[in-house]
Amino acid sequence: MDRVSFDVSDGEFVAVVGPSGCGKSTVLNMIGGLVRPSAGAVLIDDALVGDAAPKQVGYVFQKDTVFPWRTVARNIALGLEYRGVTAPARARRVREAIALAGLEGFEDAFPATLSGGMRQRVALMRTLVVDPEIVLMDEPFGALDTHTKLTLHAELLRLWEARRQTVVFVTHDLSEAITLADRVVVMTRRPGRIKLVHEVKLARPRDVIALRESDEYAREYGRLWHVLGEELA
Amino acid sequence: MTERARVVLWRVAILVVLLAAWEWLTGIKAGSRTPGLYWIDPFFISRPSAIARRFVYLAFGDVRLSLWQMALSTVQSTLWGFVVGVSTGFVAGLLLGRHDRLARVLEPYIIAFNSLPRIALVPLVTMIFGFGLLAKVVLAWTIVFFIVFFNTFQGARAVDPDLVHAARFLGGGEREIMRTVIVPSALAWTFAALTPSISFALIGVVVGELLGGESGGGLGYLITQSLGTLNAADMMVALVALGAIGIVMALGIKQVERRLLRWRPEYRTERA
Fold this sequence. Notes:
Chain A is an alpha/beta fold. In chain A, about 40% of the residues lie in helices and about 15% in strands. Chain A has helices at about 25-30, 70-80, 85-100, 115-130, 145-165, 175-180, 210-215, 215-230; strands at about 15, 45, 45-50, 55-60, 135-140, 165-170, 185, 195-200. The longest helix of chain A is centred in the middle third of the chain and has 18 residues, at about 145-165. Chain A starts with 12 loop residues before the first strand and ends with a helix. Chain B folds into 2 domains: about 1-45, no CATH class; about 65-265, MetI-like (MetI-like fold, Orthogonal Bundle), CATH 1.10.3720.10. The longest helix of chain B has about 30 residues, at about 65-100. Classes of the chains: A alpha/beta, B mainly alpha.
């Protein structure tokens, strides 16, 4: 990566797209404190991100990282447990999260019995239930089929509209980026640089299905596809 | 007939045929002028009917050391050896699995000790701990410890680093991650070692009993005693009892394992 620099403001939803291997996940890992930049710095509220995971940051991984030995409810409760939230408060917040994610009836199910989409929903709620100010998402829906993906897009937008966390969302799926984000950062192929920061001018709240048929969406998509296409060529 | 019933039926049929053949073959007199010769001599392998008689006698008859007392002694030492071996092996495996340098430093010692045939330790253990329960537990421990240790060690190293990252982002400190991520993850590997562990604990105990004399008690003692009196029936009683103990203990462990690992797909019995 080379001279990658961008700002994300409070409550903003930013998507990072680029060809595979351009370092978009690395950008995310640097923000999350998993990787230290060889030069330059990551600042959150003017504080330097060190080696540890910053407190106010939540991370949803591309890989399935639901804890297989914990039931759905106990997976979602884990972050609250770590933060010392009392059992009654924990139970209440977990119940709310499960209702929000439409996972009722699966509280006591183990992840092995769930579909990929439901597991990723658990991972998402597990991150959101502790109310992080910043949510980093690394292709969280990459392994899901198109239909499940759209459902989860709609759910993510609904949850985000309610809380307005700052989100940095890495993906290689352009339509996903346009559907979700306020701004799209397009990276070049290796060495990854920022090619373009594009503002998505689509009104909110967005309807993920209707959106795709709109002219505005087609225009945004066409423009970004053209830019990204130069990198894929 | 269900598949399960069919399997059970076959098992019973095999047992009946084997016992009947054993009883019948050891009853055929050889066509020789010397009286008392058999085609297959029950002196060496006894006969099911004789074994059953000795079983009843040793279990319920007026004997100094009943079959129950011996079995109890064996089971008791085995369970102790198992519990002590599993717990120490687990802790050591976890510790070395998470501390690379310590593991590298200790590696040759662990391999060297584990390569020792345990039976070679019996005289030394006897010298130190005598002939009683303690010596048998120690022998079982020397085997079980390593089985559990190696599995847990692998398990502790095989913890998915992404799960650890995920826990860290949820706000987990080192101790909490150990408790909520590394221990449960390693436990799955540890449990895989439990069934062989209980069998090996039994081996360790019986080896101790074979050489331990009467004060060690146990079924191993019945075997050496039977060798002394050339009593094949008693020996068979001890072997059958050991087999039964082995099966019951292995099944018990399986149940525990099934309960504790119910989150794993292969143990899945709950809703799909």
